[in-house]
Amino acid sequence: MRNLLVCVLLTLPLQAGDLRLEDDGYQTLAYIREDGRIEDESFQTLGYIRDGSRIEDSSFHLLGYVRDGRIEGESFETLFHLEDDGRITDPGFSLVARISGDGTVEDESYDTLLYTDGSDDAQTAKIAAYLVFFSGLLVEE
């Protein structure tokens, strides 16, 4: 029965507003749903982006915030800055990653970290939240 359920879920199309995140080999890493739910490649919920800014894990524990151009930890300390052009910088404003308009995410050396289905301002913040709080690709120093 579980295998049937997984097969059905795998055939469900992405809804408008959902993002699929893929590695550089185009293997699915995660999904960011329009409602803010973040799921891994097997559709297990990793966490949530609430009201576009509050980030929670799957048990609803606060992880941090993405707001006003900052990515903050749970006690409001600035972990990273999110610039209007999609650049993610550390607290000293050194580049750590960039999210392009076509959805490609690159590190400071222009190596591809992941691909998405494209991005706009709202989705850029969600992608940044995934990178910092769920992917392990960006680590605060």
Explain what the structure shows.
The protein is α+β, with helices and mostly antiparallel strands. The protein contains two helices and twelve strands. A hairpin with a 4-residue loop joins strand 2 and strand 3 (37-40). It is globular.
CATH topology: Porin
The biggest sheet amounts to: 12 strands, antiparallel
Averaged pLDDT, please?
A: 86
Q: In the residues, how many domains can be counted?
A: 1
Derived from helix and strand composition plus strand pairing, the structural class reads alpha+beta
Radius of gyration: 15 Å
Count of discrete alpha- or pi-helical segments spanning 4 or more residues: 2
Low-confidence stretches: 4-11
Secondary structure tally: strands: 12
User: Cα distance, first to last residue?
Assistant: 45 Å
What is the general shape? globular
User: Class in CATH?
Assistant: Mainly Beta
Percent helix range? 10-25%
Lateral arrangement of strands in the main beta sheet: 1-2-3-4-5-6-7-8-9-10-11-12
What proportion strand?
Answer: 35-45%
SSE sequence, one letter per element: HEEEEEEEEEEEEH
CATH hierarchy: architecture: Beta Barrel
Write the layout of secondary structure elements.
Elements: H1 2-11, E1 19-22, E2 28-32, E3 37-40, E4 45-50, E5 54-57, E6 62-67, E7 70-73, E8 78-82, E9 87-89, E10 95-99, E11 104-107, E12 112-115, H2 121-135
Antiparallel strand pairs: 1-2, 2-3, 3-4, 4-5, 5-6, 6-7, 7-8, 8-9, 9-10, 10-11, 11-12
